[in-house]
From TrEMBL:
Origin superkingdom: Bacteria
Residue ranges of every copy of the SGNH hydrolase-type esterase domain listed in the record: 47-220
UniProt-listed PANTHER family: THIOESTERASE 1/PROTEASE 1/LYSOPHOSPHOLIPASE L1, THIOESTERASE 1_PROTEASE 1_LYSOPHOSPHOLIPASE L1
Lineage: Bacteria, Bacillati, Actinomycetota, Actinomycetes, Propionibacteriales
Protein name as annotated: Lipolytic protein G-D-S-L family
Species for this entry: Kribbella flavida (strain DSM 17836 / JCM 10339 / NBRC 14399)
GO molecular function, one term: phosphatidylcholine lysophospholipase activity
Length: 234
């Protein structure tokens, strides 16, 4: 017999998909340079992952996670920051591993990975997540001095989701976060940074779909990551 909780969650998931707008990724350039270019060699930043990396919910990457992170890094290090984004709406860790990592290309001082939400939504197992996250970090090991894996945002704070679905997805997110911490702990150049600090958010955190961040939401999320980043060479 299918547990009642799974029936309720399945019905609520169908209802949410039917009524939620699919927002496009951010427009404009997917790479740029911020900061005073004459002061020092630019710090090379890559942002890789799912729809939040792609900037869904805002018009351009300047208003999204990558833009705020790049400007914050420039302020912290007193260096210009050359940033590059590779993100896809709906991308699971498997797609990131087998398709998007190669699109990132180049060599980076720091790569920030935004992934896992779609693995939760797709009901992928912790074993599948571990395998693909490990593969992503293996592929980035020769391309980035440091890799930051950002924790999955707390689904129980998402206003677009009914209560039972929020709890179910939040439990899934916490399970994947535990695995991500374990995977990163075994690597010298990888660090997991949790999404603590965006679990108490208001309506202004979200875009009009009540699911992806707004400009304010991306700024707040980038600030949380910046505050927890390991020291970078100035």
């Amino acid at each position: 017999m299918i547990p009642l909780r799974h029936l309720v969650v399945g019905a609520q998931g169908w209802w949410v998909r039917r009524r939620t707008d699919v927002l496009p990724p951010a427009g404009g350039p997917v790479a740029g340079l911020v900061g005073e270019t004459l002061s020092a060699e630019p710090l090379r930043l890559g942002v890789l992952g799912e729809s939040t990396a792609a900037g869904c919910g805002v018009a351009t990457h300047d208003e999204g996670f990558a833009g705020f992170l790049a400007r914050g890094l420039s302020d912290l290090t007193d260096r210009p920051v050359a940033w590059h984004v590779v993100g896809r709406h709906g991308a699971t860790s498997r797609r990131i591993r087998h398709r998007l990592v190669d699109e990132l290309g180049g060599r980076y001082d720091l790569v920030v990975l935004l992934a896992g939400a779609n693995d939760v939504l797709s009901r992928r197992t912790t074993a599948e997540w571990r395998e693909d996250l490990t593969g992503i970090l293996d592929a980035l090991a020769s391309r980035a001095d440091q890799v930051v894996v950002v924790g999955i945002p707390p689904f129980d704070s998402f206003p677009a989701l009914p209560r039972a679905l929020r709890r179910y997805l939040a439990d899934g997110g916490r399970a994947l976060d535990e695995v991500a911490q374990q995977v990163c702990a075994d690597r010298e150049n990888a660090r997991w940074i949790g999404a603590d600090g965006i679990d108490d958010v208001g309506p202004d955190f979200f875009a009009r779909d009540n699911f992806h961040p707004s400009t304010h939401g991306y700024r707040r999320w980038a600030d949380i990551v910046l505050a927890a980043l390991p020291a970078l060479e100035r």
